[in-house]
């Protein structure tokens, strides 16, 4: 089919939730120690049981830290560039054997523990109070996941009392003592466990066991704090687990969490078209997950007569090649342009599904399968940073619009393989659109994100916007492109893959280069 994009401003889907630009910090590799805090000889490398040899250890200079002792560079990128609104912590798999009580109080008395999810040891130097302090400086809303592996309901209730208690009770007073301030941490978002379905999880449970337990936990948690927002633990949105757990929990939670990673792109020059296709078309699976999950949510709501809409927290998503980012290297992986195109498609999915996706957390925010990589003295932005930056800047705060898109399709292998069988052949072009109305002037601006996933074909696309009247537009185009889909950024070539911006008069069509991501900002001239 000939490419064409029609956008319908009179058919809004829903406002784009700012929380789809959220992040995730796990005690894993160099995420916390080396990413949020400077590494010390005993916290880096995280997976090693031995301190880093003194002659190999490079300290982060004090000048690079905030007055609270956090890495200023990472904090500034997350707060000021990506404008991350919410961060999930402390895991991930890590949380399923995490005792929050080990991580509060005088730091010199904190217990060092074996870390069961990823190996190595946990120093507990970064705990609840440090996380909240970091969130305050970063202007980020905390989202804490409860330990439903080794943790008991009592531990969880104590944690919530510690964070949110305002009375004269033991854990509220302990927080006051530890932080030296009266005000509570006010943690609104709480997750009922992480990937409890996974066989790698400490404390794996069956869906019905988890459903029963999570119902009891939700009930008790709301007795401690009736104002929390509770997120139930789902799988991918598509699985039997999701259906069973939603049926059990739909009247007890506010959101259902799902996780999915796509990946396995071309890594080096011996790799081919096949790996490219598997990587860039992968996020189509996420859209199917969300659509099915939405159906499961509504089926469960119907059965329990729940009028409240239950939203999806896609609280781990991203591009992860598990053969490259492994536990041994702290899940560190260098991303290519192909991965960045996949990331742009991910974000298109999240914008198109604005009516049901309320939270999405890129996994993860620094060093671990992340857009940001640090050294003791600096950082660089990976290719996948750029779609996040552009979406966060231009697609936030608007309303997602219905579109119709015709496009040539892709016939090669996808990952997961079922995409083409179940959803049909993926389109080369992938798009989303958002309408912004300036609160003060009322000026309208349309933002259109288009990924051309074909690795060979440029497409000239007529773009029709069905406004009631003709509008003369100017266009500002931000394009992420490189001649080589395997190109990546790194130390010494930090800007190999980055965005170029140009302004033009709008003539109702745009040519999208092969393997490119373009974000068009149309404003009336
Ligand atoms: O983000 C890395 C890991 O992926 C998380 O710890 C876990 O929840 C998921 O399997």
Low-confidence stretches: none
Helicity level: 25-40%
Oligomeric category? single chain
If helices are DSSP runs of H or I spanning 4 or more residues, what is the number of helices? Answer: 11
CATH class (first level) name: Alpha Beta
Brief sketch in words of this structure:
The chain contains 11 helices and 21 strands. The protein is an alpha/beta fold. Alpha-L-arabinofuranose binds at residues 26, 91-93, 194-195, 316, 363-364.
What does this protein look like?
The chain is of the alpha/beta class and 525 residues long. It has a single domain (12-399), classed as Glycosidases (TIM Barrel, Alpha-Beta Barrel). Helices cover 25% and strands 24% of the residues. It has eleven helices and 21 strands. The chain has helices at residues 72-81, 128-138, 153-164, 170-179, 207-224, 240-249, 273-280, 284-304, 337-352, 385-394, 418-423, and strands at residues 4-15, 23-24, 86-89, 113-114, 121-122, 141-145, 189-191, 229-233, 255-262, 311-319, 357-362, 372-375, 378-381, 399-406, 429-437, 444-452, 459-465, 473-481, 499-505, 509-512, 516-524. It has a nine-stranded mixed β-sheet with strand order 19-18-21-16-15-14-1-17-20, with helices on one face. Helix 1 (72-81) links the parallel strand 2 (23-24) and strand 3. It is globular. The two termini are 32 Å apart. The chain binds alpha-L-arabinofuranose. The site of alpha-L-arabinofuranose (AHR) has 9 residues, from loops.
């Amino acid at each position: 089919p000939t490419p064409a994009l029609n956008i319908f401003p009179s058919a809004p889907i829903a406002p784009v939730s700012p929380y789809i630009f959220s992040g995730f910090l796990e005690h894993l590799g160099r995420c916390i120690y080396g990413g949020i805090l400077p590494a010390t000889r005993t916290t880096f490398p995280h997976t090693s049981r031995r301190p880093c040899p003194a002659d190999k250890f490079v300290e982060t200079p004090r000048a690079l830290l905030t007055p609270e002792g956090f890495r200023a560079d990472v904090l500034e990128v997350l707060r000021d560039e990506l404008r991350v609104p919410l961060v999930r912590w402390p895991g991930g798999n890590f949380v399923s054997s995490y005792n929050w009580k080990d991580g509060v109080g005088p730091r010199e008395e904190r217990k060092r523990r074996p870390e069961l999810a990823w190996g190595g040891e946990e120093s507990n130097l970064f705990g609840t109070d440090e996380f909240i302090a970091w969130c305050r400086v970063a202007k980020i809303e905390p989202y804490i996941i409860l330990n439903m592996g080794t943790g008991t309901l009592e531990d969880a209730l104590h944690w919530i009392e510690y964070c949110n208690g305002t009375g004269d009770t033991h854990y509220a007073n302990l927080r006051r003592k530890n932080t030296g301030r009266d005000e509570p941490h006010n943690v609104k978002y709480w997750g009922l466990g992480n990937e409890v379905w996974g066989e790698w999880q400490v404390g794996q449970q069956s869906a019905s066991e988890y459903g029963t337990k999570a119902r009891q936990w939700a009930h008790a948690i709301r007795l401690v704090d009736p104002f929390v927002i509770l997120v139930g633990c789902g799988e991918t949105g598509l699985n039997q687990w999701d259906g069973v757990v939603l049926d059990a929990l739909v009247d007890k939670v506010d959101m259902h969490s799902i996780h999915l990673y796509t990946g396995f792109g071309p890594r080096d020059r011996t790799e081919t078209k096949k790996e490219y296709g598997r990587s860039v078309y992968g996020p189509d699976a996420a859209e199917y997950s969300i659509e099915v999950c939405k159906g499961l949510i509504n089926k469960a709501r119907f059965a329990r007569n729940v009028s409240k809409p239950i939203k999806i927290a896609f609280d781990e998503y991203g591009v992860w090649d598990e053969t490259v980012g492994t536990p041994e290297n702290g899940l560190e992986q260098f991303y290519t342009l192909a991965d960045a195109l996949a990331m742009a498609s991910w974000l298109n999915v999240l914008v198109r599904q604005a009516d049901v996706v309320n939270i999405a957390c890129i996994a993860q925010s620094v060093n671990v399968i992340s857009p940001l990589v640090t050294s003791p003295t600096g950082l660089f932005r990976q290719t996948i940073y750029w779609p996040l930056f552009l979406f966060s800047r231009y697609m936030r705060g608007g309303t997602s619009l219905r579109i119709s898109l015709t496009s040539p399709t892709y016939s090669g292998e996808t990952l997961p393989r079922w995409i083409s069988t179940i959803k049909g052949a993926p389109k080369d072009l992938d798009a989303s659109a958002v309408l912004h109305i300036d609160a003060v002037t009322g000026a309208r601006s349309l933002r259109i994100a288009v990924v051309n996933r074909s690795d060979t074909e440029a497409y000239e696309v007529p773009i029709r916007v069905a406004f009631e009247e003709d509008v003369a537009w100017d266009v500002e185009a931000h394009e992420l492109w490189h001649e080589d889909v395997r190109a990546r950024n790194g130390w010494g070539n930090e800007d190999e893959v980055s965005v170029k911006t140009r302004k033009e008069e709008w003539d109702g069509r745009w040519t999208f280069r092969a393997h490119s991501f373009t974000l068009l900002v149309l404003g009336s001239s």
